[in-house]
C-alpha cells in the first residue's frame, strides 16, 4: 500500500475482519482492509479460512503488523464463528467494527447453475454475513454502538459482463440486508453500510479469469474489462479498503443503511 501518514482514524477501535487473506499474492479487498485499519490505529483481528493466505497480509502491513492478530475460521461453520467472536470479545472487552468480506462467484445462469452451486453461492456470499452479524450485533448493542461494513459487488445492481446469477442475487441480498438492519439498529448506535466494488484487479479476479480463459491470455481479458470502465483503469483492493475505512470510521457517524459504489463510474454508464 502506498505510504501515507496515519491520522489515527481508528485509534482505540477493535475491528473484526472476515476474509482478511487472499487467494494469491497482491492487494485483495480483505488484505487491504486489514492493512489500512492497522495503519489507522485499530487492533485488527484478521480472519480467514486459509492459514497460508495471512502471512502476506502481515508482511504488507509493515510496521503496523503488531496491531494485527490472525485467526483461522470457516465462516460457513456457525459454531466456529460463535467461538471466535466470543474469544475476541472476552480478550478485548469490545468489538467496534465488523467487516464481512467473504465471497466469490460461480459462473452460470439459472439453466446452467446447479441447485448445489446456487446454495453454495447463497451460503458463502449472504449467509456468512447473517452469521457473523448474529453473533457480533448483540455485543455492539450492549456496548452502545458499532459499525458494520459488508462488501457486496456492483453485480448486485447491474449486469457486469458475466452470467453469475447466484453471486449477483446473493450480493443483492447483502445490500438489502444492510439497509434493513441498518434502519432497525440505527437508534441503538449501530451503523450498517455496504461497499460495492466494481471490476477491480485483485488476485481473486486473476484466479477467476484464469479459470475462464482456456488459452491463458488473461491480459487480453483484463484489457476488455478496462474498456468497460469510464476511467479506463482498474482499481484494486486498496480502493475498496479506503471506502470501507471511511464507512467504518467516526467520519461516517451520520451514515447508515446505504451503499458506496467503487467502480470507476462503470455502473453509471447507460450502455
UniProtKB/TrEMBL annotation:
Keyword terms: Oxidoreductase
Enzyme class, first EC level, given as a word: oxidoreductase
MF annotations from Gene Ontology: oxidoreductase activity
InterPro entries assigned to the protein according to its UniProt record, in alphabetical order: NAD(P)-bd_dom_sf (IPR036291), SDR_DHRS6-like (IPR051122), SDR_fam (IPR002347)
EC number: 1.-.-.-, 1.1.1.-
SUPFAM superfamilies to which the protein is assigned, alphabetical: NAD(P)-binding Rossmann-fold domains
Gene3D superfamilies: NAD(P)-binding Rossmann-like Domain
PANTHER family reported in the protein's UniProt record: DIHYDROANTICAPSIN 7-DEHYDROGENASE
Family (UniProt): Belongs to the short-chain dehydrogenases/reductases (SDR) family.
Name under which the protein is recorded: Short chain dehydrogenase
Gene: lvr_3
